[in-house]
C-alpha cells in the first residue's frame, strides 16, 4: 500500500496533538481487543512508543499528547534527543544494537536497554553503570526467526547466556525481546512469538532466578496484535503512532532487502 511518496498509506503522519491523541487511542484499543480475544488483561501490556527518525518538534507534540516513554533504535540519535529534550518528563528506552563505545551514554540516561545479545556489551555496560552508581533494566534479545544475519542470541544458547549475566549485578534482567520474521504470512510471524514465549516458560521452570519478572517484549506496528495473542507484555510501536518512516527498515536490521 505505498503512496505516491513511497510511504505506506496505512500510517498517515501525525502532526498535531489531535492526530497523536487519535493514533495512541487507536493503538490502545487494538491492544485491548487483542488481549480480550485471548482472555488477557490489557493492563499487563505496556505500550512503548518508538520515535526513531521522528524530529524533535513532532516528538514534543506527541509528549504533549501524553507519551511518557520513547524507544530509540540508535544510541547516537537517542543521546541527541535526550539532551535536546531534557525539559520533558519522558524516559528513553534503547531498543537496538549497542556498540561498547556507546555504553557510557546508555549507562548515563537510558531507562532500559532491550537488545542485549553479547556478553562483551554486558560487561562494558555493567562497568559503566557501576561507575555511574546505577542499575539498568535489560531484555535479552533472542533470534527467533532463525535468520543467521539477525541480531539476537540463538535459542539454544539462551540458558547459558542468562547464567553468564549473573556476573553483572548492575544489569537487571526483565525478560526476553525479539523481532519476528518480516513476512506477510501471519503464521510464520506467530511462530517467532510462540517460540519466545516457550523459551520464557522453559527458563522460568528451569532457572527462574535468571529471568526476573519474565517479560516478553515483542510486537511492532505490523504485528503487535499477533504478539499479544502469544503473550507479549511490551509492544514497541512506531509507525502506527507517528506515521510511516521514509528510512527503510534495512537501515536498522542487517540482511533485509
Ligand atoms: C523501529 C523499531 C520498532 C517499531 O517499528 P514500527 O514498524 O515503527 O512499529 C520496534 N522495535 C525495534 C527494535 C525497532 O527498531
TrEMBL record:
Superkingdom, taxonomy of origin: Bacteria
Stretches assigned to the Alanine racemase N-terminal domain: 23-245
Listed Pfam families: Ala_racemase_N (PF01168)
Keywords: Pyridoxal phosphate
NCBIfam families the record matches: YggS family pyridoxal phosphate-dependent enzyme
Cofactors named for this entry: pyridoxal 5'-phosphate
Residues the record lists as N6-(pyridoxal phosphate)lysine modifications: 52
GO molecular function: pyridoxal phosphate binding
Function: Pyridoxal 5'-phosphate (PLP)-binding protein, which is involved in PLP homeostasis.
Family affiliation: Belongs to the pyridoxal phosphate-binding protein YggS/PROSC family.
InterPro entries in the cross-refs: Ala_racemase_N (IPR001608), PLP-binding_barrel (IPR029066), PyrdxlP_homeostasis (IPR011078)
PANTHER family in the cross-refs: PROLINE SYNTHETASE CO-TRANSCRIBED BACTERIAL HOMOLOG PROTEIN (PTHR10146), PYRIDOXAL PHOSPHATE HOMEOSTASIS PROTEIN (PTHR10146:SF14)
Organism (species): Enteractinococcus coprophilus
Protein's name in the database: Pyridoxal phosphate homeostasis protein
Amino acid at each position: 500500500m505505498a503512496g505516491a511518496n513511497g510511504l505506506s498509506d496505512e500510517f498517515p503522519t501525525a502532526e498535531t496533538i489531535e492526530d497523536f491523541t487519535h493514533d495512541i487511542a487507536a493503538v490502545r484499543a487494538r491492544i485491548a481487543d487483542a488481549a480480550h480475544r485471548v482472555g488477557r488483561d490489557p493492563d499487563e501490556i505496556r505500550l512503548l512508543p518508538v520515535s526513531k527518525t521522528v524530529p524533535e518538534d513532532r516528538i514534543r507534540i506527541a509528549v504533549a499528547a501524553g507519551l511518557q516513554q520513547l524507544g530509540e533504535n540508535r544510541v547516537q540519535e537517542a543521546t541527541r534527543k535526550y539532551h535536546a529534550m531534557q525539559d520533558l518528563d519522558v524516559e528513553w528506552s534503547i531498543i537496538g544494537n549497542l556498540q561498547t563505545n556507546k555504553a557510557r551514554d546508555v549507562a548515563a540516561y537510558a531507562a532500559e536497554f532491550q537488545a542485549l545479545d553479547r556478553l562483551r556489551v554486558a560487561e562494558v555496560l555493567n562497568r559503566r553503570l557501576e561507575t555511574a552508581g546505577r542499575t539498568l533494566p535489560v531484555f535479552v534479545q533472542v533470534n527467533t526467526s532463525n535468520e543467521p544475519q539477525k541480531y539476537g542470541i540463538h535459542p539454544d544458547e539462551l540458558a547459558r547466556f542468562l547464567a553468564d549475566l549473573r556476573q553483572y549485578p548492575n544489569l537487571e534482567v526483565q525478560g526476553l525481546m525479539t523481532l519476528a520474521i518480516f513476512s506477510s504470512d501471519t503464521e510464520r510471524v506467530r511462530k517467532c512469538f510462540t517460540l519466545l514465549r516457550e523459551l520464557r516458560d522453559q527458563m522460568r521452570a528451569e532457572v527462574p532466578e535468571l529471568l526476573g519478572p519474565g517479560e516478553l517484549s515483542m510486537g511492532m506496528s505490523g504485528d503487535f496484535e499477533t504478539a499479544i495473542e502469544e503473550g507479549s507484555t511490551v509492544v514497541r510501536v512506531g509507525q502506527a503512532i507517528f506515521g510511516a518512516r521514509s528510512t527503510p527498515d534495512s537501515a536498522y536490521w542487517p540482511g533485509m532487502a
